[in-house]
Specification:
Distance between the termini: 69 Å
Strand content: 5-15%
Structural class: alpha/beta
CATH superfamily of the largest domain: Vaccinia Virus protein VP39
Low-confidence stretches: none
Mean pLDDT: 95
Number of strands: 11
Helix content: 25-40%
Number of domains: 3
Radius of gyration: 23 Å
Strand order of the largest sheet: 7-6-5-8-9-11-10
Largest sheet: 7 strands, mixed
CATH topology of the largest domain: Rossmann fold
Order of helices and strands: HHHHHHHEHEEEHEHEHEHEHHEHEE
């Protein structure tokens, strides 16, 4: 039996939560929710789960139904994103028979009988990279992506055994890739730290573009937490690697992650690649460079749906300018005939194929392989990767 009183209390909670979040100047929603619940310890675990669910669903429909009252917009969002919506039962009772319908059917119902329009969810369709299925990509924004892990080759059986003993539901995607329900608390499993890496499925696929060999020297130029570096080292043992990023604090996080994985033989450097690299890189040359470039992150918005509302389309151009600038700097350190691996977690053409066109035309780079990694087909992030050869 649906309690209308409880439903209206949930709406008031979400309204207060959204009001406070609007003051936070765009911090990640997940981080905000952690602080919100610490400030509101009177909320029980069930209330927290429902508040999180509803606010995430609210952001998943972006600008759709923008002129509706909050209660109606939440009901539409929860109807689309779940099969057991109490809000929809109260505010959209005519759709009760369709709660178990597939997503496309629910979208058609809302578009036929309400102000909801799918085109309003993601108003950046004209900016998408070629080859992206626009309908499937936008529909994927209504679904929380899975948690993917990459099993380190020597420890594959150990991790799978631990998952089985803990009775954690998982799917083997390929030899070293496993998907789990989002939110699975892997850190609670004893004895497997450092034996796996949390890494999205599409991110793992970029490793097929490295093609490195033992004895080569590679540079992960925007290393971040080191996920691509660890992927490279697991795929190609014996590769020497330099990791760099703009801040020492970022590299300290990388050090911790490498330490857990037992990786001790690597070099690191703090480097601002928007400036001339001569002062920090000298004339060092590499057999391969990974440029996992700063980007809009639009391929990850299934995990961070608040970005649908916060994103400024003008930033696409700003990111593309930065990406071209970074690429121009790192290419100076690439040996002739060797690969630059250009990666983004963006779905926008200006950050993807247009940057590749710039590199080809300006530096005579040869495009060997290029792909949009369609994470929306796998409950994963969508990414772009290109392997370009220095002429």
């Amino acid at each position: 039996m649906v309690s209308e009183k409880r439903v209206r209390q949930q709406i008031r909670t979400v309204e207060r939560l959204l009001h406070e979040y609007a003051k936070e100047k765009g911090i990640p929603l997940a981080r905000f929710l952690t602080g919100f619940y610490k400030r509101n310890r009177q909320m029980g675990s069930r209330d927290r789960r429902m508040a999180s669910r509803l606010v995430y669903h609210y952001f998943r429909i972006g600008g759709a139904a923008a002129h509706e009252a909050l209660a109606m917009k939440l009901a539409m969002a929860d109807f689309l994103c779940s099969n057991d919506s109490e809000l929809a039962s109260v505010f959209l009772p005519e759709f009760n028979a369709y709660r178990q319908a597939d997503l496309s059917g629910k979208i058609s119902l809302l578009e036929s009988h309400t102000t909801f329009r799918l085109d309003d969810v993601f108003p950046f369709r004209q900016s998408l990279s070629a080859g992206i299925d626009r309908q499937l990509f936008v529909e994927s924004l209504f679904v929380q992506p899975d948690l993917y892990i990459r099993l380190r080759p020597r420890h594959r059986d150990d991790v799978l055994r631990a998952l089985q003993l803990a009775r954690i539901d998982y799917q083997i995607v390929d030899t070293y890739t496993v998907s789990l329900p989002n939110g699975t608390a892997l850190d609670r499993l004893a004895g497997i730290a450092g034996k796996y890496e949390v890494q999205d499925f599409s991110s793992q696929q970029t490793g097929a573009y490295f093609e490195a060999a033992a004895g080569e020297q590679w540079w992960d130029a925007c290393a971040g937490a080191g996920g691509k570096s660890l992927l490279l080292l697991d795929r190609s043992p014996g590769v020497g690697i330099l990791v760099s990023d703009t801040r020492r604090s970022i590299l300290r996080n990388l050090d911790e992650r490498f330490g857990q994985a037992g990786i001790t033989s690597y070099r690191q450097r703090v480097a601002d690649l928007t400036k001339d690299t001569a002062t920090v890189m000298d004339d060092e040359q590499f057999d391969g460079i990974i440029l996992d470039a700063p980007c809009s992150g639009s391929g990850t918005w299934g995990r961070t749906p608040e970005m649908l509302s916060l994103f400024d389309i003008q930033s696409i151009g700003r990111f593309a300018t930065l990406q071209r600038q970074l690429a121009a700097q790192v290419i100076k350190h690439l040996k002739p005939g060797r690969p630059l691996i250009y990666i983004t977690c963006s779905v926008f053409a200006e950050e993807n194929e247009k940057v590749v066109d710039y590199l080809r035309e300006t530096f005579q780079m040869q495009v060997q392989r290029v792909s949009v990694l369609e994470g929306y087909r796998h409950k994963a992030d969508s990414m772009f990767v290109a392997r370009l050869i220095h002429g």
